[in-house]
Inverse folding.
């Protein structure tokens, strides 16, 4: 099926990145959020990120202006009615996502493909809360979306071939590469990455190292471009905790228990870069470790 118009639900760090790459690839994009502030910030961030691409001569000024012109934003889910594909990128909480799908579905065309950018939640279970499980799948971008090459495509138990092929076509048009994952908790990337981040938090919690030594050790000792605690701040500690909880509940194995220190940071509202404080404090000129 042909995809021309894409709806994005949730205009946070992932939603704005997805809107950016879709508009640049020539799709019309409608972004929605519950917060006008998030929608305004998303537009400003997309504008700034496109401008950076212009200054690096990756795109022209005309490409930027055309892409910005393709993006509209709205607080009303019903404005996504004429989209061909919806990518849900709201907060990583199952109740939030199922409520969105329940509210959204009555407005959609029967042919609209529904997808979720969830990092970990069962695609099959989310699909079962909609009227179109065969037209539902996981469309998992990596952060930051304009930079990262991979998209994980996750088929639910009922996803049909036409839907999968249409999403694969979108990934191709975005100039990205797809990896196909089966629908088990946290799929491939986060099944492997998140236990490593959680273990880094345990290493901090048990006093084996401090924030600096843990990140330094993993950067210089294993050639990771970012340390695990820096990466956790970048992803969002609430998202990291939510993914660990999905692994723990979904696989029923104590090896996935979230570190109590990770829970503590989330309880404090220290969610990483998006709140200016996490394992590092970003309020000054340079990030300062908080432990
Ligand atoms: N952060 C990452 O590195 C990363 C990577 C891949 C996938 N994801 C997934 O992407 C999704 C979004 O993550 P994020 O990092 O962009 O989070 P975020 O906190 O930056 O943004 C979430 C946005 O969702 C909005 N929202 C909440 N409830 C809503 C509702 N009912 N309707 C519409 N909008 C609503 C919020 O206002 C906010 O703007 C999550 O499912 C997450 O697991 C995140």
């Amino acid at each position: 099926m042909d995809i021309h118009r894409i709806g994005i639900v949730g205009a946070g760090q992932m939603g704005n990145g997805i809107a950016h790459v879709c508009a640049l690839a020539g799709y019309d994009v409608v972004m929605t959020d519950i917060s006008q502030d998030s929608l305004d910030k998303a537009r400003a961030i997309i504008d700034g990120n496109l401008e950076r691409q212009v200054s690096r001569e990756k795109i022209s000024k005309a490409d930027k202006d055309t892409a910005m012109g393709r993006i509209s934003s709205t607080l009303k889910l019903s404005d996504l009615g004429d989209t061909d594909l919806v990518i849900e990128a709201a907060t990583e909480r199952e109740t939030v996502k199922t409520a969105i799908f329940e509210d959204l579905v009555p407005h959609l065309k029967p042919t609209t493909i529904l997808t979720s950018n969830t990092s970990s939640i069962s695609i099959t279970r989310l699909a079962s809360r909609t009227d179109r499980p065969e037209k539902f799948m996981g469309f998992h971008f990596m952060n930051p979306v304009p930079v990262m090459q991979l998209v994980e495509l996750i088929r639910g138990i009922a996803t049909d071939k036409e839907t999968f092929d249409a999403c694969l076509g979108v990934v191709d048009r975005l100039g990205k590469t797809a990896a196909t994952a089966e629908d088990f908790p946290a799929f491939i990337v986060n099944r492997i990455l998140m236990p490593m981040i959680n273990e880094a938090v345990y290493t901090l919690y048990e006093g084996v190292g401090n924030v600096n030594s843990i990140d330094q050790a993993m950067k210089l000792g294993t050639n990771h471009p970012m340390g695990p605690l820096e990466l956790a701040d970048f992803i969002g500690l609430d998202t990291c905790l939510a993914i660990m909880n999905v692994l723990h509940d979904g696989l029923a194995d104590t090896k996935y228990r979230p570190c109590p220190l990770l829970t503590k940071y989330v309880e404090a509202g220290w969610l990483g870069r998006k709140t200016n404080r996490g394992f590092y404090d970003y309020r000054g000129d340079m990030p300062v470790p908080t432990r």
Remarks:
- The first helix runs from residue 13 to 24.
- The mean pLDDT is 97.
